[in-house]
Specification:
five-stranded mixed β-sheet; alpha/beta; 5 strands; about 20% strand; 3 helices; about 120 residues
Length: about 120
């Protein structure tokens, strides 16, 4: 059963600077009500338009931090360069409860489980 759903843009985007609005939209974040949220899904393919730019890495980091929040279970997915996955995973380390890579081929792969009780995923 899918415990995530799309939130309305006005709920998420009102606090993001204008320069972080490229190539994204509602598809970028799937989140449930904060009181029952199981996971936040970040589709990294929506962080850029045609090609990810290494020079835009600070912007990608800011976007991921803003969308992931603190203490959440975060899932990274979408077609993106490996360097972008690695950098975002490194940036979210210590900020999230758990970090999972979701692939249509492998399914969910736990990258890190930072919950003190070790029960995330």
């Amino acid at each position: 059963m899918d415990d995530s759903y799309m939130v309305e843009e006005e709920d998420v985007w009102e606090f993001l600077p204008d320069e972080m609005w490229f190539g994204g939209g509602k598809e970028m974040l799937q989140e449930k009500d904060e009181t029952t949220c199981r996971e936040v899904v970040l589709d990294l393919s929506t962080f850029y338009t045609i090609r990810a730019k290494f020079s835009a890495l600070p912007t990608y980091r800011q976007k991921a931090i803003a969308l992931a929040g603190n203490g959440k279970e975060v899932v990274l997915t979408g077609a993106a360069p490996v360097w972008l996955y690695l950098d975002i995973a490194n940036e979210l380390h210590g900020r999230v409860k758990s970090l999972v890579y979701r692939s249509p081929v492998t399914g969910d792969v736990v990258v890190g489980d930072y919950a003190p009780e070790g029960t995330a995923y």
